[in-house]
Every structure is written in structure tokens, then in C-alpha cells.
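Limitations

Structures in this collection are predictions, not experimental determinations, and the ligand pose is part of the prediction. Treat each record accordingly. The example that follows, with pyridoxal-5'-phosphate as the small molecule, is included so readers can see exactly what is and is not provided: the inputs are given verbatim, and the output is the predicted complex.
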Amino acid sequence: MDRNSYLLLPTLQTETQTQDENDISVWRFRGSDNATKASSVTMRVICFKLFAECSPDVGKVLLPLAHGDPSVYPCYRTSIHAEDAIVDVIRSGKGNSYGPAAGILPARQAVADYVNRDLTNKVKANDVLITVGCNQGIEVVLQSLARPNANILLPRPSFPHYEARALFSGLEVRKFDLLPEKEWEIDIPGIEAISDENTVAMVVINPNNPCGNVYSYDHLKKVAETARKLGIMVITDEVYCETIFGDKQFVPMGTFSSIAPIITLGGISKGWVVPGWRIGWIAMNDPKGIFKSTGMIQSIQQNLDIVPDATTIVQAALPEILGKANKETFAKKNSMLKQNLELVCDRLKDIPCLVCKKKPDSCTYLLTKLELSLLEDIEDDMDFCMKLAKEENLVLLPGVALGMENWVRITIGVEAQMLEDALERLNGFYKRHLKKTEFSFAALKLSSDNGKM
Ligand SMILES: *Cc1c(COP(=O)(O)O)cnc(C)c1O
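Predicted complex:
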């Protein structure tokens, strides 16, 4: 991991409000504060704070398990086939030009063919737009929906980029809950309760980052019916659809496009473990042509006209990359993730302050409930993660970064040995901060009798 640490560790500090002597009254320009609100809800700010707590004095290597990018670890390297596809494009000289704003046609056709494998209401190449990663799809769609007073419904917990971009676009954010006791299903009555005549869309992340669940056919159908009733579109983020290691069957939201219009966001970043290639897509599942009548397609295309294009090299390789993908392509990665998950869940049995309520079926995270009542001097999830960083050089993500106070997220998309080390440190940390009651002494004694201390 040392080799690639420059990719994972922050090099840029955000809080550099240093005193300076300049008299700025003579200058007419100022930094815009437009992004301040938006950036305050991103994970980066919290991760910087946690990294700042870590120090070489601890004498242990820093374990960054707050955010995840498996691609920095050699064991998750993408297939030679995908790499060859890129090399071939470069050697052919066919990736050197600007492409159209919507993406080059072969790439759009390749995405249409790929998503159509699982759909009855097929999409055409024309319904697909290529973006700079899935994130640009989020940006462009939210920007296209923004108008005065409009609001959007986002899940809690969520992938923070949605809220950041909604705020930046001037869209009001309203949150509905994902229910831990119901395997993270969407609180459907809650959606109806928070929506009104200015609600324009709701976001479904499936497979779900950060909860790791995969929604059932019946549940997604209910979501579509609710969207229909409210007159809103469903934006579904399926960037993790090739990262499923449990037995749940993935059902694309586009299956229900005859009930309500669906925008599917996807990409190769997570499935193929190549987030640095920056390719994603927007697919419009809309057999009734509602996006056209409402001007949505036009708005999205106009937005794409004025943002950077996805790199032509990777677009040109997309037919080869997507066309040849099958279960085998993702099998090794998914089985490593499954093994890592089992490892963590097994070790957590001895660390009852972090409880896994439901083993994830997908994605690269484990979301655990923090049992504060077992701990002596920990205030909340942020305090837990700050002290853990300071004492153990171990960085986990406090749930508050995702809108879930007193939960903690552990990345499992790393090398197994890192998880072994991390869980050992967590165990020591837990024992040091355990509330000293007769019961806990008895429990500790029991575990040491079992040779686990
Ligand atoms: C990682 C991620 C993205 C961003 O994907 P890129 O292709 O890297 O831009 C979007 N949505 C979710 C839910 C993600 O986890």
C-alpha cells in the first residue's frame, strides 16, 4: 500500500485560514462562497480531520479504512482484457480526437446493449449519454432538474455527492430514511410524507452504498408506483451492480420504466475497479417519452454541451470492455470482498461496541452500529473515530459523514492483512475504552480465558 499512498492520503488541507497581513480592501475580487455549503457535506472534510489526528509517534502504519478505492491494491487489478482494450485504442490513434458532447456513438450503443441484457423495455443508443464517471451523471442530472423552489428526495444514509451537488445546484434536499431493521428498505410512507408539489425526483442507490443491500423486485416496484403517484422521476444509481457477493438477485430499476420514468446512472469505476478511467453513463428508461415531452432530455443534453467530455480513449474501448463482460469478469473481486467481509464479521464478535446488524450483499463497505453504552469516554461516532485515529492510526468513517449518527463505516475493499491489523487495533481500543462494570470485567475475563486477549 505504501507504493500508492499518494492516491489515498490527503495532500491538501482545507482549513488553512491563516492570519495574513494583506490589506484586501484594495482588491475587488473575493473567493466565491458558493461551494462552501456543498463541500461541507462531503466526506473529504471529515477524512482530513481524521488523518490530521494520525501521527508517526503511534508507531503503527496508518490504515485508511474510511473511504474506499480498491484499485490502489494490486489484488484488485482490473482484467488484462480491459487493459488491452485501452492499449489497442491508443495504438490505433482512434482515441485522439474530441468526441460529441453526448459521447461517441459506439460507446453509447455499447452501454445500451449492456443495460439491455437485463431489461424488457429496451433503451436505444440515443437514450444513453456518456459522462466523466458516474459523478458527472449525478451533477448533470441534478443541474438539469434545478429550478426555483424545486426539491429532491435523497436517502439517509446516502452517498454524499448527491447532497453536495443538489446544494450547489440550488435544489432543496429532503431526506427519507433507509430502515436498518428492514434490511435497509426505503421508508415508502416517509417519502409521501416529505414530498409536495415542488418535489421533482427521488434517488435510489441500488446496490446500496453505504448499506450494502440489494433491493428486491417487489420493493422497487412499490418505489416506482410511489413515484408515479407523486408525479416524480426516479434517479437510480447502479454503479455497484457488478459488485454483488451475496445471494440477492439484482433487479435494475429500469424494469419499472413503464410505471414511472427512470434515469439510470452507471459506470465502470466500481465493477471493473478503474475509477481513474473516469467513464460513466446516463441511461434514460422512458418508453412513454415523458422525458422528451417535459424537456428533460434537452436540458440534460444542453448541460452536457457545457461540461468536459469523457476521454475519447476509454469511450472507444467501451464496446470491447462492456461487450466481453460476464460473471467471470467480476468473480475474483467479489469473492475477495466476501472473504474480507467474513473476516471482519468474525473478528467483530469480540468487539461488541460495533455491531453488524445485517451482513451486506454488495459494495465495499460494512456499516456497523456503534454501541456507545458499552464505552466509557466516547461521546459519539465522530469522537470514536477521532480517538481511534489518534491512538491507533486507524481511520474509519463516522456515520455522521453519511447522515447516520452513531454508526461507523469500515471499508472492506482493501488487502485482507490490513483488515486483520485493523481489527486487532480495534479490539485493543475497545478494551481500553470499555465501561468498567462488573459485567464487563466478567466478559473480559471470559475472553482472556479463551485465549483471545
Ligand atoms: C463511487 C460512486 C459514484 C461515483 O462513481 P465515479 O464513476 O467514480 O464517478 C457514484 N455513486 C455511488 C453510489 C458511488 O459509490
